[in-house]
Every structure is written in C-alpha cells, then in structure tokens.
Amino acid sequence: MIAQGFIQDLLARVDIVEVVGRSVALKKAGQNYLGLCPFHGEKTPSFTVSPSKQFFHCFGCGAHGSAIGFLMDHRGLGYVEAVQELAQIAGIPVPRDASRDGPAAGQRRSLLEANETACAYYRRELKGSPVAIEYLKSRGLTGATAARFALGFAPDQWQGLKAAFDSYEEPRLVEAGLVVEADAERSDRKRYDRFRGRVMFPIRDRRGSVIGFGARVLDGSQPKYLNSPETPLFRKGQELYGLYEAAEAIRRKHRVLVCEGYLDVIQLSQAGFEESVAALGTAITSQHVATLLRLTDTVVFAFDGDDAGRNAARRALHATLAVIPDTKRVSFALLPQGEDPDSLIRNFGAAAFETELARALSLSQWFLKSLSEGLDVSQPEGRAALTAAAKPLLESMPAGALRMQLVRALAEVVGTAAGDLEALYGLSPARRLPESAGPARGATRARPSGRPVEALKSQLLRRLLAYPALAREFAQALGGLLEQGGEPVDGQIAEVLQAATAHADTSCAALLEALGESEFADQYRALCARDLHLDDDDLEAVRCELRDGVLALEEARVKSELSALERQELSDEVRQRIPMLTSRLNELKHQRGTATVTAGLVKP
Ligand SMILES: [Zn+2]
C-alpha cells in the first residue's frame, strides 16, 4: 500500500536507537545498545539494538525487527499505522498518493465513517431501550463495561438507520454491511437494516476504528449471533474481537486469553482479565495466533467444556503448531462441562476462573490428550492410530526444539524411540546453522541442507543480509553462480541480491523491509537477528569470506561439470571442454589458496 521507495527513505532518516529509546531505557554496550526487553519480563538486559543494522533483537525471547516492526509489536499497530507513526517521528509527510489517498483508501475512510455513525446511533438507542439495558444487566454487565466496549442496540425496525444517515440510499451503507439490498422482485422494501432487535458489539481495529459489528438477539430467536459480512474493512480470519481494548493489558500482563465469544471477552474484562480476546465467529486461524504471538509471550486458550469447545481447542492447537516459535508458551484451559468463561465468572467468581487458568494444559499435554481421545493406547492398534493421527500435526510444525519435545513425548506414550518416530514420519532434524547467537524466530523453518554447497550458500545468504553493501558488490559474481530452479537457497540469494541492488544505501533493516513481501521474510529477519553482533569493523573479513565463497561455488560447479563429462562419451566437444575446465579448476584452487588465508576472521 505504501511505496517501497518511501519506506526506504524513511528508514534511512530515522534512527532505531531513538525510536526504541522513547520507550526502553538503552545503554551503550560496545557497538550496540542494551536494555530490558519490553516484550518479556527480564532482570538482566538481553534486548539489543544495533545502530549500524537499524535492527533490534532480544536474545531472551527472540523478538526482533526494524523500527517499523518495533512500533507494530510494541504499540500493537498495523504496518501502515506504524509507518505513519514513524514518519511523524521523523517529521516527514507520508506522500498523499503513496498511502491513504488512493481510491481504496478513500473507500476505506468512507466505510469507517459509516461504521462510526452507525455505532454512535446504536449507542444512543441502547440508552433509550429498557429491554436491552435489562438484558445486559441480567448478564451482570455494568454501565462502565458497556461504555468501554461501546455496546449498543439496534432497534427492531426495518430502516432504523434512516435516523442516523442523511441518505439511506448511499451505496456505502451496503458496502459496509450495515444495510442489505433486497431482491427487488421479491420485496417492495428495497433496502433494510441488517441488524434489527439486537445488542450490538462494535469490532475495532488496532487503532480503535470500528470495522464491523457483532450482534446478539435478546431472546431465543435464531440466529443467536450475526456478524458483519466480509467487507473491505473486515476480514474475519484476521481480526480478533477485543484486541484494541485488551492491548494495554496484554503488554502489562505478558499474556493474552483467547475465548470463544464476545460476551466471554466482556465478562472476563469486567472481572479483571482485561487481556481477553475472541475470534469473530470463526475458528482460530494461524494468522490469529501469529498476531497474538507477536504481541506477547504467552497465549492461553480458554474454551467451553462442551464438544464444540473441545473442537475449537483442537482447531486452535492445529493453528498454533504451524506458527509457534520455541520461545513462546501456549496453553489450553478447558472449562468444566457446561461452563463458558461468562457463566463460570457469573456463577463462581473470578477466582474460579483463575483456578482454571492455573490448571490449563500445556501445548504438549493437550497435543497428546486431544489426539488420544477415543483411542485405547494400552493396545498396539490404539498406539498405531495415535502415531498416525499425530503425523500431519508434527509435519506442519517448523523443525525445532518444540517439535522435538512433542515427538519425544509422543514416543513415550506409544512406546518407541523418538528417532524411530522421526524416521517413520520422515521429519528432518532441525537445521543447524554454523553459528548460533541465541534463539531466533522462524530461523529453523528453512529446509535442511546436507550438501556442503548448500551449507555454503546458506552461509553466504546470511552475510548478504547482514551487509547489503557487500550484496551489491557481489551481486554480479554471485548471481551467475546460482542454479535456476535449484535448491530454495538459490532463489533466496537471488531475491536478496535483487532487493539490495534495487535500493542503494540500504541498512540491514531497510533491506529486510524491502523483502517484507517475500515468503521467506520471517526467515530473513531471523537470520539477521542472529548476526546482530557482526559490525562494520568486520566488513573486510566478510568481504574476504564472500570472495572465497564465490570462488568455492565456481569450483564446485566446475568439478560437477567435469565429473559429468567424464562419464560421457568422448566427442570433440567434450575433448575440448575437459582441459578448459581442468585449467580453470587449477586457477580457482590457486586463487582460493590465497583467499582462504584471510577467510575465517569473522568472530563467531
Ligand atoms: Zn525479550
């Protein structure tokens, strides 16, 4: 949405040390700055900010990113909002045509206004509706809580919103999902309100703007809940109810509670669990979980103790496994049969809910429990069924310590060796990078590389990310040595070289932003975080390393061509090619002999 050129300019003009320093006390330590991590509780600083790379990384919890990423994670802002905030700090206007004022943005603003108008109308109507007020009171909700969540009431009228808008015919009322356009042949009433006779729950984005509504009937009629349809503002699989209201508490308490319904969120919040959110009438998605894990270290799912609740918890487990890094904690509180957070708190009080949270199952416990439900693991058949059921879940996980632990726990239950299970599943062991400076998010998601050439390429990729200037310098030499359609790492190097040459003078963080749309973006960021200790003094050593790497790659290529030719019949062409390659190989070996003397100077 925002032009990459502008992002690059912006990142070149702000200093991440200043941006982070506004909320974290930083002390200079060598070339970098250190402070107490704002994303997890710690007493000794492991939160590192690199001025040369314009990148931060916490060696405790693995949080990392650019100045934009910091604002997103720390302030709970979306990407565009973070860019706007950063631009404000830097005193640079966001170009009009670059972001907000495109046709899509104009429509967005107009829909947001329509929602705000409707929200204000519903709130007024609630004040004048004794039935609705009585309903909320019967649920134990106070006026202050209703105000905090901007609750409202849609009266039971076909065109109630006529009172709120100048023209009921505006197309945006339909686009925002507030008004339904009826099939003209089947009804005289061409348009009517979507929400009638319902308590209204405005759904806000991270900045507090109303992007949609949830609505609940007061009586037993159906459907009990009705939500805004998908609109340009509202994507159910991405948004979480209550996140705006909960953001501050999530940061303060270092955890987030995920429950199933709007009323659960509101009830929990009123009872002191302000860190609560819910999905919007859909199952929890990996995108939801990833959003929450960016904000905090600990996610607790608190689901109803009925079949639907258990199914929701099962789906939440699947969504979590695909995205959870080793450094985060996710647990599952399955409430007693027949209770949801709302009823539990109303019937037994906040302490009872806290007890349930304390009893929550860890991810590994729920993993084993949910999979073995209905199976008799005392029998070989049951154990085999469990082994089979676990396979797709483990396969969906990034290789890493957590997956290893789950495999071990499973191995114990099914009575086999963890190694045998891994072999049975065809899971490859976690990839070991040549050097490790601490845990990093997503770093282990890369495909393992057993071949030395692939390992070399992976190492080169890291260096290119850490030193965009060297990436530009070696772009041509390296580009010619990559295999088209080869291992993923070839494509990754090509992508990084391309981004580095497209933007002159990029810092490491700015290069990562330019690669933000890549499917490997997370992996690139994790690699950079690991190399935060490399500084500009190492530039010459890294240059030598790259020079040697280029020679080594060419050497490997010449060798492989030679061995292929040696298996072929001796045509004239082959006869000429072999001595050429042999002489090039000797040349390379000679050059490398001198180059390797200077390689390996880089500190681990
Ligand atoms: Zn941290």
Describe this structure in words.
This protein is an alpha+beta fold and 604 residues long. The chain has 25 helices and 17 strands. The strands form four sheets. The chain has a six-stranded mixed beta sheet, with helices on both faces. A hairpin with a 5-residue loop joins strand 9 (198-204) and strand 10 (210-217). The longest helix is centred in the C-terminal third of the chain and has 28 residues, at 539-566. The radius of gyration is 29 Å and the shape is globular. The two termini are 39 Å apart. Residues 430-450 and 596-604 have low confidence and may be disordered. Zinc ion (ZN) binds next to loops.
Small-molecule components bound: zinc ion
**Uncertain runs with pLDDT below 50, 5 residues or more?**
430-450, 596-604
Cα distance spanning the termini? 39 Å
How do the strands of the widest beta sheet line up side by side? 12-14-13-15-16-17
Shape: globular
Structural class: alpha+beta
Helical fraction equals 40-55%
Radius of gyration: 29 Å
Mean of the pLDDT scores?
Answer: 85
Number of strands: 17
Task: Summarize the main sheet.
Answer: 6 strands, mixed
Task: Bin the strand percentage.
Answer: 5-15%
Tally the helices: what do you get? 25
